[in-house]
Amino acid sequence: MLRLSKLTDYAVVVLVRLSEESGIQTSGGIAASTGVPEPTVAKVLKIMTSAGLVASQRGARGGYRLARPLATIPVAEVIIAIDGPIALTACVEHSTSVCDTSSLCPVKGRWDAVNTAILDALSTISLADMRPTAFFPLPAHHLPEKRDAVPTTASALTTAFLE
Amino acid sequence: MLRLSKLTDYAVVVLVRLSEESGIQTSGGIAASTGVPEPTVAKVLKIMTSAGLVASQRGARGGYRLARPLATIPVAEVIIAIDGPIALTACVEHSTSVCDTSSLCPVKGRWDAVNTAILDALSTISLADMRPTAFFPLPAHHLPEKRDAVPTTASALTTAFLE
DNA sequence: CCATTCAGGACCGCGCCAGTCCTGTTTTCG
DNA sequence: CGAAAACAGGACTGGCGCGGTCCTGAATGG
After folding, report:
1. A21, A93, A97, B7: which has the fewest C-beta neighbours closer than 10 Å?
2. Is A121–B125 a contact, with Cβ atoms under 8 angstroms apart?
3. Which among B36, B56, B61 is positioned nearest to B45, based on CA atoms?
């Protein structure tokens, strides 16, 4: 699958939405404007808060706001905040789970290179790169450069893999 | 989680093991030499066969052998063979599932860049790069070059993310 | 003092992967 | 020619984890 959790997808939606308003926003308001169910938005925002990506204000007239500019938040950070450290398999270093056949595992330690490569790719792309230009056409500052930072060299092989 | 299925992990083990013997090998033999349960090995090999990564010989004295050299098999191909096309979210192009809120989804189409970056990374690393050098020290042909192809530039940021 | 809003859990159902098994087909060997 | 060896291709099930909801408590503002 190599699929990330749905909550991560929601998190990106919510964070992007947060960036589109200067003031503070309630979880209910974000739910309304994004279409994501309110309890889910609340859950996402709580996680984002404890991860330090957004700042929260309790009490009446409270709400959430971004702790940092969108462009300084790599996708990797969002994924890690929700799903925990990126570890493709149990054999990867820093993994929480244990490899039961670690002593004779033939690929022991070899997934690390793969893991690092993926992490590197995810650290290159910021949330600002994922903002849809069509909906909110703003003076494109970072989008063009960052987009070029995404490797597009494997196009031929890549598209073949994508079926 | 961004975790790939256990079967994929097994597949790498099995394929590497296949490469370490010139002749044909039975699924039972591979199970014995790798420690992976035999039914699971059989399942993996059947998938690998239909994906064209290994060739099979039926009947008595039958078995499996690699269809191509290990160095020409990118990790991405193994992952795709087992888990299907790589699609991080439902919103990614070529994804099989449908995005229910596609029309007003704020990040519509934006995961594509992320997906492509990951796919590119996975296409760069071949199974030969994952062979443990400690166990079978052979004249290193492709290992050094390929290993350098794996981006190691994000080390500082990367290790920070890894918990 | 009350309404509002976040904090931090507990909780449950559903889907999906992992692992097994069974039946059929192909091939080799005695 | 028959029996054993080995792959082919499913069906089947159990467990685990995520998605989604809800509840109680704490903080804040009017």
Report:
1. A97
2. no
3. B56
Q: How many residues does the structure list for chain B?
A: 163
What is the rounded CA–CA span in Å between residue A160 and residue B58?
30
Q: How confident is the model over B15-60, as pLDDT tens digits? A: 999 999 999 999 999 999 988 899 999 999 999 999 999 999 999 9
| Statement: the pTM of the whole predicted model exceeds 0.85 | no
Look at A131 and B110 and tell me if their CB atoms are within 8 Å. Answer: yes
Is A106 within 8 Å of B154 when comparing Cβ atoms? no
Among chain B residues 50-79, those with CB within 7 Å of any atom of strand C? 57-62
CB atoms near residue B60 (< 10 Å): 5
- Rounded Cα distance, A48 and A87, in Å: 20
Q: What are A48-66's pLDDT values in tens digits?
A: 999 999 999 999 999 999 9
Q: To the nearest whole angstrom, how far is the Cα of B82 from the nearest Cα of chain A? A: 8
Residues 6+ apart with CB under 8 A from A113: B125, B129, B130, B147, B150
C-alpha–C-alpha distance, residues B38 and B19, integer Å: 18
